[in-house]
Amino acid sequence: MRSRDRARRRWLAGLAAAFLLLQLGVSAPALAQTAVTFDFEDGVAGWQAPDWLESNAGNPFPDATQVHGGSASMALPVIYEAGSGWEQSGAVYRFPDAPVDISAYVAVSFHVYAPVPGLSARFQFNDPWTEPATGTRPLQVGWNQLTYDISPTSADFPGGIGAANEIILFVVGQNLATTYE
Fold first, then answer.
1. pLDDT tens per residue across span 113-151
2. Within 13 Å, how many C-alpha atoms sit on residue 107's CB side?
């Protein structure tokens, strides 16, 4: 049985000390001027850990122990049970002035820290629920940069994405050898 009230919790340093850099842009010069960036230097306002993701064990918080550039990242307490199959944790961000027009952007990039082997990650849109056709991406132990194409010719999101209300970053644990908490 999973205990979410333990005094000591480890966090997934990726969504749990995740430095999320969302870069939505069309080209290098345009990207520098129009990027939507979450660097967590000023906190994690607007990010939530939904309870329907069964491995979430608390709310996101700013963290300085595991960072990718800068001095802070977003940490998310998680519990993954050993050998339990498919378990998900993640964080959700709802744009304050949703829907946001993202039709001029071509990609979403983020960094995720994986503290243990056997993890994968996925980025998706919500409201409406829009998963990438290419599914999850495997993570190596350490920092990983993942990029999803959102252009009209995208294999990740066929037809592209024109507007966004909410984004979700998932980390999935599958049949981990030991419990991670």
1. 888 899 999 999 999 999 999 999 999 999 999 999 999
2. 13
| The dihedral sign for the CA sequence 55, 22, 48, 124 | negative
SS3 for 111-146 is EEEECCCCEEEEEEEECCCECCCCCCEECCCEEEEE
pLDDT at 109 over 90: no
β-pair partners for 122: 170
Q: pLDDT of 52-82, one tens digit each? A: 999 999 999 988 888 887 888 898 999 888 8
Q: What is the pLDDT confidence band of residue 35, given thresholds at 50, 70 and 90?
A: low
DSSP classification of residue 1: -
Residue 148 corresponds to which amino acid? Y
Say if CB 172 and CB 124 are below 8 A apart. no
H helices of the chain, in order, are 13-16, 28-34
Instruction: Please tell me the distance from the alpha carbon of residue 131 to that of residue 153, in angstroms, as a whole number.
Output: 16
Measured CA distances, 102 to 25, 34, 39, 66, 109 (Å): 9, 10, 19, 30, 14
Q: What is the three-class DSSP state of 147?
A: strand
User: pTM (2 decimals)?
Assistant: 0.80
